[in-house]
Structures are given as structure tokens and as C-alpha cells.
Design goal:
By secondary structure, the chain is an alpha/beta fold. The chain folds into two domains: 70 residues, Arc Repressor Mutant, subunit A (Orthogonal Bundle), CATH 1.10.10; 212 residues, Vaccinia Virus protein VP39 (Rossmann fold, 3-Layer(aba) Sandwich). The protein is built from 15 helices and nine strands. The strands form two sheets. A seven-stranded mixed β-sheet has the order 5-4-3-6-7-9-8, with helices on both faces. It has a two-stranded antiparallel sheet with strand order 1-2. Bound molecules: S-adenosylmethionine. S-adenosylmethionine (SAM) binds next to α7 and α9. The site of S-adenosylmethionine has 20 residues, from α7 and α9.
Length: 333
């Protein structure tokens, strides 16, 4: 008998299967719903959770079948994989909820060169803050650098829901903070949360654009520009550099706004290219594909470092989180 040659090449190691595509989508929805119920935050403290409704029971069963939870009596606890999911749930929220409106528009717009980002701003903000919170030691390093220095004012450009500002305000109690983001609704919600945290007297949040333009933005008039000593920006510089004239142009615009800035803290996703989806670390293909759709350029580590050096900034710390997510602390040489 002759061997039958398969018509379709067997699935190469690392390729996606139809099962990954469909079940991954469902798992993502369940992960976000469980997050909205506070389950992951509770589970990460080592506590168990207990569903209280039929819907919650269905979600818990789905999370068990996915391998993220296991049952202990009538309660549920994290598996090893579930721990990984809980820690990284911000990435799931950004991809499943935050960026979904952009991906949805592909269907009706095959003729467009790019699809302008149409995000769910609150979901992106919360997801990004959760991404930041995964690595408290990065906050601690930034907080220590600020707190060890003479007290000044730290600005977070594109602060979203001020998750990073709040974490750093706790670590550097003598520092004042200013956060600016283009999403006025996100800023209003974040401002309402400052008073209960007891930091409203030294944290100011303003709505507006931080893209340097020929005319300074209106929010800058409400700010003591000379008081700013640290400028931070996380996961926004790539976009501003792409919309504008490159990384160095944006940074030098910020240096003009804040003439006494002596420390920069820049977190961003670096471009890591590979022809095959699964050859890249997780999330980098999604990040890359999302940005190609929106026409926003991603930049290599070399491009960031060339711009830093051209403006006289020296790297004092480089902290890799996920392989492509890098936070750099710089001081003026
Ligand atoms: C990917 S999120 C990063 C949020 C936050 N920096 C973090 O890392 O957790 C990008 C943020 O930049 C804000 N943004 C986009 N364009 C902006 C602009 N021109 N000026 C100020 N903020 C902007 C968005 O509203 C969003 O909150």
C-alpha cells in the first residue's frame, strides 16, 4: 500500500490552529469579565474567589476548562498558568477591549491606507496601568531616583488614568506630580480618585495634547514650567514621533517646554520584527500589527538611543519588562 500524501502540510510547530483562534477569543472575553469582577486582583493576593451567580459560575467553569483556575471545595484558586494570566491581564484588556473598535473597522475599509485608531480610552488606560503594575520593581527604581533627588515636579506626558503617577506619588512623598492626557473623560475620572488617596494636594491632572506643535498647548499656561525636573512618558512617544517628525523632535519640544528638566523616564515598545507570528515574543506581533493598521510607526531600540544621545541624554538605567517593553531612565550628560 502506498502512503497517502496529506493535501495540507502538517501544522508546523508554532503555527496557530483554528482552535487557538476561536478558543483564544473566548478565553480573552472571560479573562476581562473576571477582571471587571475583581477576581484576578483577589486571586493574586493568594485568596480564593467564589461565584455568586449562575453567570459567574459559567465563567469560572470556562476558566477552569482553560486551565487558569482550579476548584477548592466551592471556591476557586489560581493555577500556575492562571497566575501568569492574572499578572498579564492588562495586555488582554488592551487587545480584547481597547483595540477592538479599530480592528472591527478593517471590514468596511479595505481601501484605506490606514485606519485611524478608534480605541476604548478607559479600557486602554486601565489595561496600560495594569501592564505597568506587573513590575513593581520598575516603579520602585523610578521612585527611588526621584525621591533621592532634591524635590521637584515630575510630569507624566500621556498619563491615562494616572496609574503610574499614583504609584510614584506613594514612593516619592516630597515630589509634586503633573499628569497630562488628551482624553478628558479619563482625566476627570482619575482626578476624582485623587482625594480619597490623600494626594490631591500634590498631584494635578490636566486634559490636553502633549504633542509639541508650533503653538504651545493651552494647558501649559496653567503650569509652572520651570518647576518641572523630571519628564516621563510611557507608551506614547512612538505615536507622537510617528505623527510628528521623529523621536528627537518630540523630546526637544518637551525640553523647550520644561527648561529645567534633568531626568527623563521613557517607557515604550520597541520594534522587533520577525516574518512569522510565533517567532516573536507574545504581544509583540499584536502590537506591531495594530500599529501597522493605524499607520503609527514603531521604532527600534537603536532609534530611541540615537535620539537620546543626539539631545545630550545619557542612559542611567534600562529596565526590560516584556522583551519589547523597555523603560529607560536618562540624565543630562
Ligand atoms: C498606550 S496609552 C499609555 C498610557 C500610560 N502612559 C501608560 O503607559 O500606562 C497612550 C495614552 O496616551 C494618550 N494620548 C494619545 N495621544 C495623546 C496626545 N497627543 N497628547 C496627550 N495624550 C495622548 C492616550 O489617551 C492614552 O492614555
Amino acid at each position: 500500500m502506498t502512503a497517502v500524501t496529506p493535501l495540507v502540510a502538517p501544522n508546523a510547530v508554532g503555527d496557530f490552529t483554528i482552535r487557538d483562534v476561536i478558543e483564544g477569543q473566548t478565553a480573552g472575553q472571560l479573562i476581562v469579565a473576571a477582571d471587571d469582577w475583581g477576581w484576578w486582583a483577589t486571586l493574586l493576593t493568594g485568596d480564593t474567589v467564589a461565584p455568586t451567580t449562575g453567570i459567574q459560575q459559567t465563567v469560572a467553569d470556562g476558566l477552569i476548562r482553560a486551565g487558569f483556575l482550579h476548584r477548592r471545595g466551592r471556591r476557586y484558586e489560581l493555577t500556575h498558568t492562571g497566575h501568569d494570566v492574572a499578572k498579564n491581564r492588562g495586555f488582554v484588556r488592551v487587545a480584547v477591549r481597547g483595540w477592538e473598535p479599530t480592528f472591527r473597522q478593517l471590514s468596511d475599509n479595505p481601501h484605506l491606507p490606514h485606519i485611524p485608531a478608534a480605541t476604548e480610552p478607559g479600557e486602554v488606560a486601565r489595561g496600560c496601568s495594569d501592564i505597568g503594575r506587573r513590575r513593581p520593581e520598575i516603579f520602585e527604581t523610578i521612585g527611588r531616583a526621584i525621591d533621592d533627588d532634591t524635590p521637584g515636579c515630575t510630569v507624566d506626558l500621556g498619563c491615562a488614568d494616572a496609574g503610574r503617577v499614583k504609584a510614584l506619588a506613594a514612593l516619592a512623598p516630597r515630589e509634586r506630580f503633573l499628569g497630562v492626557d488628551i482624553e478628558a473623560g479619563v482625566i476627570a475620572d482619575a482626578t476624582a480618585e485623587l482625594t480619597p488617596l490623600g494626594i490631591a494636594d500634590r498631584v494635578t491632572l490636566l486634559a490636553g495634547s502633549v504633542q509639541p506643535e508650533p503653538q504651545p498647548p493651552a494647558w501649559l499656561e496653567a503650569v509652572d514650567r520651570n518647576a518641572v525636573t523630571t519628564a516621563m512618558s510611557f507608551f506614547l512617544l512612538h505615536q507622537l514621533a510617528s505623527d510628528g517628525a521623529g523621536i528627537a523632535t518630540v523630546l526637544s519640544g518637551w525640553m523647550d517646554w520644561f527648561p529645567n528638566v534633568r531626568r527623563l523616564v521613557i517607557g515604550d515598545g520597541y520594534l522587533l520584527e520577525a516574518p512569522h507570528w510565533t517567532q516573536q515574543p507574545w504581544f509583540s506581533p499584536t502590537y506591531e500589527i495594530y500599529h501597522s493598521i493605524t499607520g503609527v510607526r514603531l521604532w527600534t531600540r537603536q532609534e530611541y538611543e540615537d535620539a537620546f544621545a543626539a539631545l545630550g541624554w545619557s542612559v542611567t538605567r534600562r529596565m526590560e519588562d516584556h522583551t519589547m517593553l523597555v523603560t529607560t531612565i536618562l540624565e543630562r550628560g
